[in-house]
Structures are given as structure tokens and as C-alpha cells.
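The material for today's practical consists of a large collection of protein records. There is nothing in a record beyond a sequence line and a structure line. As an example, a complete record with its sequence and its C-alpha cells follows:
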Amino acid sequence: MNFPLPDTAEALKGMIGREISSLRAAVRRTSERPPGGPGGTALASPLQSLSVLPPKAETDGVSPCLCSTHDPDGSGVCSVLPAIPASAVLLEPVKDEAGVVLDFRIVAGNRVRSADWLEAPDRQVGQRFLEARPGAVHSGLLGALTEVADSGRPLDGRVVDYTEQRLGRIHRAPLLYSAARCGEQVLATWRPVGSPADVLTIDAQYLASMGWGNWDLLSGTVTWSEGLTRIFHADVRMPWSLEQLCDALLADDLTAFSEFLSSVLAGEEPAWTRIRFLVLGEVRTLDLLGRPVAGTDGRPWAINLVARDLTPQIRSRRRLAETERESDRLRRQTEAERHVADALREALLPTYSEALAAVGLTVAASYRPAEPDSAVGGDWYKCRLLPDGRVLVAIGDASGHGLDAVARMAQQRHALAGLAQTGASAGEITTWLNELVCSDPAGQTATVVAGHIDRDKTLHWACAGHPAPLLLRDGGAEPLGAEVRGPLLGALPGYAYETTSTPLHPGDLLVLYTDGMVERRGEDLTVGIDRLREAVTSSSTREPQELIDALVADSELAGHGDDACVLAIRVD
């Protein structure tokens, strides 16, 4: 059967209503057609099937009853027991001489069996309750019924784990009991709490995020499983009709759901689709499998739907995709920063030209960034021959990490190189560099040791908050003494830094370093300087490059959470 596909939810609900009305009308016509009439034997229908059922067989008209209050006209409590859809009995207390309830006698019962191994209550009329239900004492059931008989307070929905031995086998069934006093008697009902298969089915639906529903198109009855009510956050006692499902559809999925329902109503099986519903403000994505339940006329009298909730997986995929996009963005950013850092390193870190060797100096240096993926950070050094024959020597540390620190480092390094071309003293150069850092809107500080070695091998240097260089002479290393050690760059605008002069001898080796070589959390800085001094002294016979390699390879020196930079200059 082909259906025109609706383009709105209201049109879809109208299509469903028309199909159900047509089905019901056809079934009514079929049920009214006389058997053996034109066209052969009439098709069976639910309505006809109910009308031709033979009357239920009776045994002597009514179920056995020993109720002392049973009226001659058939009225009484026992007369309503067959209408109760659960196992039901009417109990008469059996008391001792003191009026204490010892047991009950079953005076009436219906035919509903609560378990296949338990007899129907009407088969036990006349028996003592403990004879018919020997497990009532240990399960606490007898005491609960006695309390109802004595106090008159009803028993409402008590779960009894009933266990009984029959024919050498132990049987067990969780039963839900209710009871109330009726005059001097007690009316008790019970039904299964749920079979193990039911419990396992509910667990399986929960684990698989699945559920099922049945829509009886003739009676309008809708039945949902626990799993489906969980998916739609609905009440199991108030499942949604097909029209309510239409109201929860996302507009973009209307056509797909229309095609799906059309296929099911047309009797095609199985039909499958993926549909999104808006449930309590959240979009839930379901895989739906639909199957028609055909009647004797071949038309679907009911439809079954099985739903699998994909929302958690889709949510996880969305988070994974977002994480992958963020990771890709960070990877591209890291690659860009590494590319910039590599270019900066090639441009900023000194090369050791023949010009330095020509003036009698052997130079070696090493730089270790705090972050292994970074090529360069805020630490820097400079060693180059100036046009006037002096050799510029400097080492510094711009605060911070990452590209911001690299930018400040490049600014300070280039500024120092430009200021050194003026022929100014080390103190003047450092003073001007301090003014530059003070004018930076970022408000960051820096440290530096800057100076030059003149033609007669005298080091003229100034210090701005930086550790003093070490001088290795005659096998021992000691920090250089500065007349005045100035403050950090950027800390005091207008501060005038002073120049200190230190004569160098042939064989002397200067070691300039940043605080990453000596500073440790919770440790005084002088302890780290002594540690470095001892390491330099123990390597006094090595070439400058060998000395540098040994220092940066020492786990007690470099690599403790900060950039580490070291520069060695030997006077040949």
C-alpha cells in the first residue's frame, strides 16, 4: 500500500488516524458478515473471535466455597474472587482458647496460579493455610497475615521470597502479597514480582540502551517495555501513542519517519530507520526496527517497534570529534610555534666564527628549554666580535615561557646588540636596556649580564639581577665579584647601572649561565651556585665544549622546570 508522504507533523498524525479508522471499519464489517455468506467463509477478526468463544466451562456453577458468610443469592466476598486478576483466597482465622491466631483455613479461592509449581487457590479450599503454603512461617507471611487479622491494618504490596519443597525439589518464587480484613476473615492476593527472565530482559535493555513497544491499532492499547520508557523518560503506565511520537520528532526527520511508518502500516517487514526525537530538551537519536502484526485479513492490526538509543554513542563521538579538532588545532599551533622558534634559534643563537678565534677566544654554548617541544624560550646569550675590536659578551633571561617570552628575548637581544655598536660602556648599555624593558606595557621583568672583552683581555661587565659569571682559574672556579649588583631590568626606571672590570689571564675560562642551572624550588640560590661551581672545577681540564656538554648532561644541574642556558669563553 502506498501512502502520500506528509510534510508536517499534523499531516502525519492525520495519516495515522485515517489508517487506524479504516482498519477498524474494515474489521467491523468483517465481524458483521454472516458466516458462509457471499464470498465464502468470513474472515476472522478480533471482534468476531470474542463473540463466538464458547462459554467457560463451570464446575457446579461456581468455584468451591466454604465461606460461612456466603449468602444464598450468591452475593458475598467470595463471589468476586474470580474477577481478581491475581491469585486470591479468603482466609478464616484458626485460634486457640486464648484467642491467639495459630493458622488460617482457606474458605474460598480463585483459579489464578502465581507459579506453575503452585496449585490454584480453588484447589486448596478447606485446607489449613500452613498445609497449603508450608513456607509461610519461614518467609514471615503467616505473621503478616496474623497482624492483618488482629489489627485490621491492611498489608499493601509486601514482597515475600516464598520457598517450598515439593516432591524432593526446592522451589522459589518472589511474590507480591496484599491483604485486608473482611469482617472476621482476611482477603489475601498475590502475584509474581517478576520472573528471572523478566529481570534479565530489563537488565539487557538497560545495558544495550534498547526498548520495545507495541501499539494495538484496534483497541488503542499501547504497551512499552522498561527500556523504552527509560529512553523517552516516560511513565511506564502512560506510554506514548504514535501521535505523541510524531509531536516529539525533529522537523528534519519528519520525512524519514513518515516513510518508516508507511512501510510498517503497509505490511512490509522489517522496516528500519534512524530518527531523532526531542525529549525533555535533549535530542535523542534512535535506531527503529518496525514489524507489523498482521490479522487474518492480512492487514496490520498492531505494530511492534524495537528502539536502540544511540544518543550516548553519538554524544561520545561528538566529544571525540571536538577533542580531535582541538588536538589538531593545538598541533598546528605547536607546529607553527616550533617553526617560529626554529627560525628564531637559527637567527638568535650565536655561531662561533673564525673571528673569535682570531682574537684569542674559544667559545662554546648550550641551551636547554624547559619544555622539550620548544626550540627556544626566554633565555638568551650573545658573543660576537664588534667593529672596534671588542668582543660583546652577554647572557640574559626574559621572564615567562612560550612565544611571548621569545618575543621579549628577541627584543632585548637585538636592542643590546644595537646599543653595543655605540661604543658605550657596559653600565650605560644596561641602563638603556632597563629603560626599554620599563617601557614595555606587559610589565614583565628580565635579568642580564652584559659587557665586553677588550683587546687587552679585560672583561668590563654590568649585572642586572643576574647570577655573576664563574671564573675558572688555576683549576678552581669562583663567582666574579661585582662592585654593585643592580636590580632586575624593568624594576626601577631611571636606575644607573655601574661597570665592573675584571682582568683575564691566558687559560682563564668564563662560565656565564642562567638561573635554570642553579635555581631549585625551596632551595637557597647560593646552594645551586656552589653546586655549579664544584661541577666546573671538577671539569677544569676539559675543552670548553666538553665542559658545556658535561654540565647540561648533569641531572643535578640542568632540566629542573626552567630554561637552562650556559656560555663558556676561554682566553687562549
About this structure: The domain at 77-192 is CATH 3.30.450.20 (Beta-Lactamase).
